């Protein structure tokens, strides 16, 4: 029995230790939560630090001035939230107001600039100088942005009265009759011309007047010879005031890019005339005799060589040609005869029968509105032919039959010019400033055109 009891006790012990090992293994396999805590000494130190920092921030906040808090809000753009009518109107006003304010500011400045009055011209200025350079930059301040303006130019031989006639067109008051400086008595005695290049003047009723140097002038020829002689010699001598002295010395005549100086003078005159035929609504051909074959041949050559500029007429693109008025200045009493007027008109009609220049525009002495006995019934179909007596030699204002003399004839002529039907210069409407830039381009094209150099080869 003792052996049995001893074995039983051994089994109990083995079971006891075996179960204990199992519990230890199970207890070790479980992961229990880990709690991290600081020791009591460190926690006391942190409390002391926190109390000190709070006391320092309170002191600093007491010393500093309190400021308002800044609130950042993000706008909700693109969300599909519904808005109330008041919110919609507020948002629309917010989007529209800045654009409306900018537009109002710009329009106010434009209106203010457009209401500024243009300065009034007192004297003519240069548009093309004697060296054939376009130099009319000072003209822009006298030009506006309107399209209702008229351009009138004149051509003619030397001492025909071009500058005097153009000065009378500027105004009817005697104080403005010398706006374009005429040829002085001293210049006329030695055979010198008065105008060099092209002069321009703008009237108060928006008429742009162009006065030019004489065409086919011996004075211009003499001046060109003297300039070339000075360049070749390098030592300019005393000026020669006799326009015909150097012309007699044919050995001193130099050559230019257009051949001889005679050809250069004619080509220069053709270029200026072609310029007027391109940029003017009306061109006045002023002579002191009703028929000069050299002037008429010259005008036909200028028409042939002018640059081709297009305009819109009856919705069709056509080449532009201006109105041409033939003015006989310094006319005698016998020139106002019905038979003489009829003969003058027939000669001009036959000469320009194939020309595209417009010579029937309602400006003439034989329309019946100037002198009663000079009408289409007695003189034939009227053309652009007008006569003026000599202004300086007119002693009796009533020495012409059925008219009051130069003053009345000049006033009627001016009214006819201002009432003429003008055609657009280009296919688009030009303002006064646009006309200035257009004239500059036309002159540059004429200077570079090969037609004039080719034409100079055909000249003798």
TrEMBL record:
<feature type="compositionally biased region" description="Polar residues">
    <location>
        <begin position="242"/>
        <end position="255"/>
    </location>
</feature>
<feature type="region of interest" description="Disordered">
    <location>
        <begin position="1"/>
        <end position="115"/>
    </location>
</feature>
<keyword id="KW-0866">Nonsense-mediated mRNA decay</keyword>
<protein>
    <recommendedName>
        <fullName>Protein SMG9</fullName>
    </recommendedName>
</protein>
<dbReference type="InterPro" id="IPR027417">
    <property type="entry name" value="P-loop_NTPase"/>
</dbReference>
<dbReference type="InterPro" id="IPR039177">
    <property type="entry name" value="SMG9"/>
</dbReference>
<feature type="compositionally biased region" description="Polar residues">
    <location>
        <begin position="57"/>
        <end position="70"/>
    </location>
</feature>
<feature type="compositionally biased region" description="Polar residues">
    <location>
        <begin position="101"/>
        <end position="115"/>
    </location>
</feature>
<comment type="similarity">
    <text>Belongs to the SMG9 family.</text>
</comment>
<feature type="region of interest" description="Disordered">
    <location>
        <begin position="229"/>
        <end position="255"/>
    </location>
</feature>
<dbReference type="GO" id="GO:0000184">
    <property type="term" value="P:nuclear-transcribed mRNA catabolic process, nonsense-mediated decay"/>
</dbReference>
<feature type="compositionally biased region" description="Basic and acidic residues">
    <location>
        <begin position="39"/>
        <end position="51"/>
    </location>
</feature>
């Amino acid at each position: 029995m003792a052996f049995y009891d001893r074995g039983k006790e051994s089994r109990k012990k083995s079971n006891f230790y075996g179960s204990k090992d199992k519990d230890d293994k199970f207890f070790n396999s479980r992961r229990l939560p880990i709690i991290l805590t600081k020791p009591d000494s460190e926690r006391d130190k942190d409390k002391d630090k926190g109390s000190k920092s709070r006391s320092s921030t309170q002191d600093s906040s007491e010393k500093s001035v309190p400021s308002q808090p800044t609130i950042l809000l993000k706008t909700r753009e693109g969300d599909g939230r519904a808005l109330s009518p008041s919110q919609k109107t507020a948002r629309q006003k917010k989007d529209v107001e800045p654009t409306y304010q900018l537009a109002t500011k710009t329009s106010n400045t434009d209106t203010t600039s457009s209401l500024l009055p243009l300065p009034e011209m007192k004297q003519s200025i240069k548009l093309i100088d004697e060296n054939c350079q376009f130099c009319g930059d000072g003209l822009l301040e006298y030009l506006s942005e309107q399209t209702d303006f008229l351009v009138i130019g004149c051509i003619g031989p030397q001492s025909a009265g071009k500058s005097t006639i153009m000065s009378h067109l500027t105004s009817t008051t005697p104080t403005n009759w010398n706006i374009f400086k005429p040829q002085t008595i001293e210049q006329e005695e030695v055979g010198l011309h008065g105008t060099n290049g092209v002069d321009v003047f703008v009237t108060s009723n928006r008429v742009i007047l162009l006065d030019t140097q004489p065409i086919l002038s011996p004075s211009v020829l003499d001046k060109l010879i003297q300039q070339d002689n000075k360049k070749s010699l390098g030592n300019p001598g005393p000026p020669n005031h006799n326009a015909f002295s150097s012309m007699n010395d044919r050995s001193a005549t130099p050559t230019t890019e257009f051949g001889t100086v005679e050809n250069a003078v004619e080509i220069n005159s053709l270029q200026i005339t072609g310029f007027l035929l391109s940029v003017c609504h009306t061109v006045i051909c002023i002579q002191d005799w009703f028929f000069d074959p050299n002037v008429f041949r010259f005008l036909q050559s200028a028409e042939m060589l002018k640059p081709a500029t297009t305009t819109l007429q009856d919705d069709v693109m056509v080449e532009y040609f201006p109105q041409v008025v033939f003015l006989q200045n310094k006319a005698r009493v016998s020139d106002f005869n019905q038979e003489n007027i009829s003969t003058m008109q027939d000669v001009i009609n036959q000469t320009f029968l194939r020309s595209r220049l417009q010579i029937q525009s309602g400006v003439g002495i034989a329309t019946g509105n100037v002198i009663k006995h000079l009408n289409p019934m007695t003189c034939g179909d009227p053309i652009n032919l007008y006569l003026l007596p000599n202004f300086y030699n007119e002693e009796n204002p009533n020495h012409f039959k059925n008219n009051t003399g130069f003053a009345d004839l000049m006033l009627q002529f001016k009214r006819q010019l201002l009432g003429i039907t003008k055609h657009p210069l280009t296919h688009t409407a030009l303002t006064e400033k646009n006309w200035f830039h257009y004239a500059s381009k036309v002159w540059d094209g004429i200077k570079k055109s090969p037609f004039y150099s080719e034409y100079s080869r055909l000249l003798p």
